[in-house]
Specification:
Blueprint (H helix, E strand, L loop, with lengths): L2 H21 L1 E6 L4 E6 L4 E6 L1 H4 L4 H29 L11
């Protein structure tokens, strides 16, 4: 068994996985769509949208909670999409944490 070749193949697989995950994008929302958050497959924030109605109140804490809830929603959706992307590559879903 050639260990160097095996390591090179593992590195190439990881790079491929990174490219695939970087191309995945999900949107999470909260407050009936008042706050939306977009993440890519590497959990990089790609956008935040806040409806003007969410700013109408004076309760900043509520808006903060909506942003956090939208992030959590996007994270859950991302986990599902990541599993699908890895399965399409023939890789086990547990590898997503290595990306």
């Amino acid at each position: 068994m050639n260990v160097a070749k095996l390591l090179q193949q593992a590195h190439q697989a990881q790079e491929q996985m990174q490219r695939v995950l970087a191309g995945v994008e999900v949107e999470g929302s909260a407050g009936g769509g008042l706050v939306k958050v977009r993440l890519n497959g590497l959990k990089e924030l790609r956008g935040v949208s806040i409806d003007a109605h969410a700013l109408a109140g004076e309760d900043v804490g509520l808006l903060e909670d909506l942003v956090m809830a939208a992030w959590e929603d996007a994270s859950r959706r991302l986990a599902d999409r990541t599993q699908q992307a890895l399965a399409a590559m023939g890789l086990p879903a547990g590898l997503a944490g290595l990306a």
